Amino acid sequence: MNSALFTGISGINANMSVLSVIGNNVANVNTTGFKGSRATFSDILSQSLTGNSQIGLGVSLSAIQKSFAQGAFETTGNILDMAVSGDGFFLVQDPALNSTLYTRAGQFSIDKNGKVVNPDGYELQGYLADTSGALQNTVADLVISTGSIAPNASTSISIEANLDSNAPITGFVFTTGSNEDIYFSIDGGTAWLTADLVTDGSLVSAGANTGAAVAVALKDALEAANGIADTYTVTFDDQTGLFTINNDAGNAGTLVLDWSHANTTSETVLGFTAASSGNIAAGASDTSDVAAGAFTLAKAGDTSNFTTPVTVYDSLGNAHVLTMYFRKDSLGATGNIWDWYATVPATDSTSGVEQIQASGTITFNTSGALYSESSVTYATGGFDFTGGAAQDQTISFNYGTSVAEGGTGKDGSTQYGTDSGISALTQDGYSSGTLRSISIGQDGVILGVYSNGRDLTLGQVLLASFASQEGLKSAGSNLYTETFNSGQPIVGSPGSSGRGLVQANTLELSNIDIAQQFVNMITAQRGFQASSRIITTTDELLAELVNLKR
């Protein structure tokens, strides 16, 4: 009979423990990230009688288990409020003990040192990013720097454009005896006037943009165009402004062109335009006088087929607007050849005059695809901008992956029979900027949004998972520590290896179901009462036994 007393006592103790667990759950119903517990019972070793007959000796508290079921989400207005959707725990560092703890409570803020901390000052752990936004593979205190980011000089321009295949070939044209057309243009280098032979694609450059230099270029161009033994003498009279072209192959063929302008050293010259053309007839003398003023020096805008502005940045972050000129030049062996030029306004150029500072050519095949690109040719060593920035700034110009490079030639610039236009234009430079706001993705990546329009990765929040999260030990303040039963933490990016996702502007509420807790409370109360009744009943029986001897 005494065993019945002890059985009742065990029931009272067990149900008291259950009520304590339920009370703790109910008390934390509004605690952020709280995970409820439940008590489980097991019977005590039974007393054997005869055969298989046994009498139980009561109940004991077997375990108190954490339930890591997902809690409901609450949206907040704080970007640093974070919740874990799925498995995983935030890592926080105790600065005093230099120990790592784990939590589901994602209430964070930025302290005076820029560190992301919880309400107790524990530092959130993750990956930091370098100044370029590349994440470093070392777990450290997450820091949100509110300082400015340095400017970045432009080094690359990517242009996706269509250049109209119907555009006319521009420039000065005259016809030789064998009907080859010669075009004046600029090659973007130190020579400012060229003679471009359409039929064979050869290019002859003058040494400078003077009348005498043009005469040399004309001579070489004519001889290259004919491809025969005929030779030409081309002279320029700087007093009269006359070009004289003589056929020296036993004929008196002479073409005289009257140029009404004096020699020039202007670096804005692209070439010549003329209102008429002359023909050197084989075996005859043919003189053509071009009216005064018919020859004019032409700037880029006068002879280009298409223009577009491009904003670039120097080493100090100053913005400069380049003007890109595209001019259909000639028909080569593989297709149409276009010249492009990049000019800098006089106010932005160290020379004080508008200049062509970079140039090149792009070639399209008969399907309109980009066939090839030339390398960039600079007037000097690179772009020279005003404002004290570094000089000779080199910028690459990318028009797509050409056929010559193994591409399709259609992922960038093309030449189709539609109006010329830009579909995409990007460059990699930017000015300095200050942090305006941050955002946090589901992968935990913290992105800074700056006043210069640039987005830069600042870091990444990491999560820890465990082989048995039920084996974690509560450390108070919604924190847990690892134990032998939990296993070591497996730290990594949210969304990887079974870890959950990070929800910003969100807090995870307690996973306590208050209605269920009240039901459990009633059950525990009844169990307590029943165990008490065992004791009182046994006591009454013992009293009856005592009274038997009276």
Write a brief structural summary.
The chain is an alpha+beta fold and 550 residues long.
Molecular structure report:
The model is unreliable at 171-210, 224-230 and 249-302 (pLDDT under 50). This protein is 15% helix and 35% strand. The strands form eleven sheets. Strands 7, 8, 11, 12, 31, 32, 33, 34, 35, 36 and 37 form an eleven-stranded antiparallel beta sheet that branches. Strands 23, 24, 25, 26, 27 and 28 form a six-stranded antiparallel beta sheet that branches. A four-stranded antiparallel beta sheet has the order 14-15-16-17, covered by helices on one side. The two termini are 21 Å apart. It has four helices and 39 strands. By secondary structure, it is an alpha+beta fold. 34% of the residues are buried.
The average pLDDT value, as a whole number, equals 79
Number of distinct helices: 4
| Helical amount | 10-25%
Q: Give the C-alpha Rg.
A: 43 Å
Shape: elongated
Largest sheet: 11 strands, antiparallel
Tally of structural domains: 4
